[in-house]
Structure of Acyl-CoA thioester hydrolase:
Amino acid sequence: MSRIPDSSTFGPLLETRVADAWVDYNGHMNDAEYARVFSLAVEALMARIGLDVAGRAEHGYTLYTLETHLCYRQQAHRGEALMVDLTLLDHDAKRLHVFFTLRNVDGDPLATSEQMLMGIDVASGRPGPFPAPVAAVIETLPPAGDEWPSAAGRRIGIVRR
C-alpha cells in the first residue's frame, strides 16, 4: 500500500493512499489515521537514512519519537493519493527535529507533523550518537535553512484578544 520512493532523488519521503479502513463516519480520513501516515513517514525516513530492518540490526540502533505536534489543514478522502515531504529543522549527534507535510496530488497541504526523534542504542536502551554512516546521510536531508515552515514551532493555546 505505501512505498518509499527511490533514494537517488529526495522527492516525497512517502507515497500512499487513503485506505478504506481509515475513513470514519464523517466520510473522510479519521484523525488518528493522519498520525498513522506520519508514523509511516518516520519508518520511511529511517529506511532513507540507513535504519531499515537490516540497518537497525547492523548498527544496533533505532529511533524513538519523543514528541509530535500534528496540525490538520484539509480533509483526505477514501482512495485519495497522499504524499509526505520532509524538512529537517535541526539535528545534533543523536536527535532529529523534523517537519513532515502531508499533501494531496495537487500539492495542497492536508496536515503537518513536527517531531523530535531520538537515536537509541538498542543494547543499552539509552540515547546514543548516530552511527557514522547514518550521520552522513542525515547531512543530506533537505534542510529548512533560515525559513522554517510557518506551522513549525507552534504552540497550542486559545488566543485572547
Observations:
- Residues 2-8 have pLDDT under 50 and may be disordered.
- The first helix runs from residue 31 to 48.
